[in-house]
Design a protein that fits this description.
165 residues, alpha+beta, five-stranded mixed sheet, two-stranded antiparallel sheet, 7 strands, globular, binds zinc ion
Length: 165
């Protein structure tokens, strides 16, 4: 059975933090604030995969009150999402994601981001789509106060043995 999941995340841009998007550290005066490395793109993808499984979101698996996840690379979260898929004898078909950032320019980093995401999920790079757009200077993203990401995941799961009525 083909399942789909959706994920959305946003983090605030602040001074004194590294900017890490899709596992790629990008030179920028500000970085995303958060408990982990605040990789908004990987977080949205993680939620999309977990959503396709009907699971709770990333905060349930990795609470931001748990010191173990402080400044953790977010690939840890994607690896766990992939493990959850395997545990259910499923297979990720594809991922598609969009980063919404006014600055910096994302395009030069897209290929490397795809490679990092594909590696964390154990997928071929051809199954990972990452796009980027600005917010046309509108709202908090346009004012460079934060960066958002959205993602969908398609996951093939075994047919359930019983169909609930
Ligand atoms: Zn997040």
């Amino acid at each position: 059975m083909n399942h789909v999941g959706i994920g959305y995340d946003v983090h605030q841009l602040v001074a004194g933090r590294k900017l890490i998007l899709g596992g790629v550290e990008i030179a920028h005066p500000k970085g995303l604030d958060g408990h982990s490395d605040a990789d908004v793109l990987m977080h949205a993808i993680c939620d999309a995969v977990l959503g396709a499984l009907g699971e709770a979101d990333i905060g349930h698996f990795f609470p931001n009150t748990d010191p173990r996840w402080k400044n953790q690379p977010s690939k840890t979260f994607l690896e766990e999402a992939a493990r959850q898929v395997k545990f259910r004898s499923g297979r990720i078909i594809n991922i598609d994601a969009t980063l919404i950032a006014q600055q910096p320019k994302i395009a030069p980093h897209l290929k490397l981001m795809k490679e990092h995401i594909a590696a964390a999920l154990g997928l071929s790079i051809a199954r990972v789509g990452v796009k980027a757009t600005t917010n046309e200077l509108l709202g908090f993203i346009g004012r460079e106060e934060g960066i958002a990401a959205m993602a969908v995941a398609s996951v093939d799961l075994p047919e359930p043995s019983e169909t609930p009525i």
